[in-house]
Amino acid sequence: MEKKRILTGDRPTGKLHIGHYFGSLKKRVELQESGEYNPYILIADVQALTDNFNNPEKVRKNVREVAMDYLSVGIDPNKTTIYIQSMIPEVAELTVFYSNLVTIARLERNPTVKTEIAQKREIFGESVTYGFLGYPVSQAADITAFEGKFVPVGEDQLPLIEQCREIVRKFNSIYGDVLVEPEAVLSSGKRIKGLDGNEKMGKSLGNAIYLSDSEEEISKKVMSAVTDPNRIKKDDLGNPDICMVAYYHHLFSSKEEIKTVCEECKAGTRGCVACKKQLAKNMIEELKPIREKRAYYEAHPEEVDKILMEGTKKAREVAKQTMKKVKQAMKLNYFE
Ligand code: TRP
Fold first, then answer.
1. Residues 183, 163: Cα–Cα separation, whole Å
2. Residue 224 in contact with residue 34, Cβ under 8 Å?
């Protein structure tokens, strides 16, 4: 039997950080290595433009940065098809067709869109663009163009998948049973807090450690991580439960190390600097293979471009097949 296509993707608005790594990238590599699926990853540059339309250079640059991040963590282009959204015109075409099947009120009620609009006041002011409000329609096109059955996503994306399912049902009820209704699969990845203790790690928050960060950058950032504010002198008794360094030790250090550093912190026998140094060392070690692979691709941009070109070409063939069925169903196949 043919393997089920699964579709994931990211907006290329910045390099990927360890929040992405623990949140989704590790899971994607796992799914890829299971051999049970036919995975596609889209670099959603069109979607990135919906809230970065005034910054095309940023989107362009980050398409390649994100591609290099994927390759460095172990996304294997022989097993996973990586493609660029804007180079699949069928997806844009589908978006136009689907836009008749969704109301403005329904889009305005989409919780993900609502949250984002509230966060992006500085871009949109009081009134949001047609393109941004409609990006769930475009995302429905992304998914259905590939007949994606499973979409592994984080919780924040669930309303987008639900909206896609509604569009699919509406399409199929009007034009016939053509589109595949996707299911969201919650990726069991963790949500990683920022260096400052913020619930979210993010570029705009300035609290992220990037997969591309150098050893020096990692050390510097770890040194700046927020620790127990009540611990002023080294022999003050610390509370690891409110310390970001302890939090990251749980992600990067061995069980014994975690036990030792936490006990010594509570007893006031280990200072924060020593604890941070140990964390930085472990983090540097764990991320080393990723950093090395990334350095390789940074030195070979032509290989990255080739992977993107081939992936996009392959993806487009799939989208063309879907488009053919869609046009037939919508009676737009005039000369057949
Ligand atoms: N909305 C996703 C994000 O912001 C990116 C994305 C675009 C996507 N199209 C998709 C994710 C299709 C899964 C499936 O990260």
1. 11
2. no
CA of 140 to the centre of ligand 1 (A): 10
Which residue's entry shows tokens 């590790």?
Answer: 26
Rg (CA), the chain: 22
pTM: 0.94
Q: Tell me, what DSSP letter sits at residue 83?
A: E
Is 185:150 a contact under the CB 8 Å cutoff?
yes
Residues paired with residue 184 on neighbouring β-strands, in sequence order: 151
- Using most ligand atoms within 8 A of CB, pick from 139, 144, 168 the residue to mutate for ligand 1: 139
**Does ligand 1 have an atom closer than 6 angstroms to the CB of 179?**
no
Q: Which residues contact 210 (CB under 8 A, 6 or more apart)?
A: 15, 16, 17, 18, 217
Share of residues in the chain with pLDDT > 90 (%) = 85
Separation CA 249–CA 17 (nearest Å): 17
Three-state SS across 36-69? CEEEEEEECHHHHHHCCCCCHHHHHHHHHHHHHH
Q: How far is the CA of 139 from the centre of ligand 1 (A)?
A: 7
Say yes or no: CB of residue 128 within 6 Å of ligand 1. no
Residue 46 has a CB neighbour count (10 Å cut-off) of 24
Q: How many CB atoms lie within 10 A of CB 193?
A: 17
Helix (H) / strand (E) containing 150: strand 150-153
Q: What is the mean pLDDT of each run of 10 residues along the chain (336 residues)?
A: 89 96 93 95 98 96 98 98 98 98 96 91 87 97 93 90 97 97 84 91 90 96 93 88 94 94 92 94 97 97 98 98 98 95
